[in-house]
Amino acid sequence: MFKSIKHVRSTVGMGLLWAIGWASVGVLTGIASSLLPGDPLGKFDPGIALALPGFLAGLLFFGILRFARGDLGIYTLSLAQIAGWGLVTGLLLALLPLTMGTLNPAYPAGLTAISIVGILTLLSALSAVGVALILRIATRK
Known about the structure:
This protein is 79% helix and 0% strand. Helix 1 crosses helix 4, helix 2 packs across helix 3 and helix 2 crosses helix 4. The chain is mostly helical and 141 residues long.
């Protein structure tokens, strides 16, 4: 029972770490866009908009690692392998909006799909490596 509670806590922790990271990227994007003339984002807040997908990506990443690696976890992987699993996470997460038909018809579908896949895979790979580095530094002390 305690082992399952530990896994749930670890999964939620991974999701929260990713959500914080992705929300930070969104906040920086919002700040940068507000400096541009005309404020292209308007009232859209990318910080909040990226927090939920970041949380879901963190949960998905942890689930993929648990399924593929079992109890070996993130500590036995190289940073390149972790980045690879992060890319897989981003690709799987990108399938959700692409298969649900939520793309904006005002924009070309191919360009929108490429940008969604590109952003999610890049953020996922960076998040995976970032979390791995944080965990490695935390376990050294």
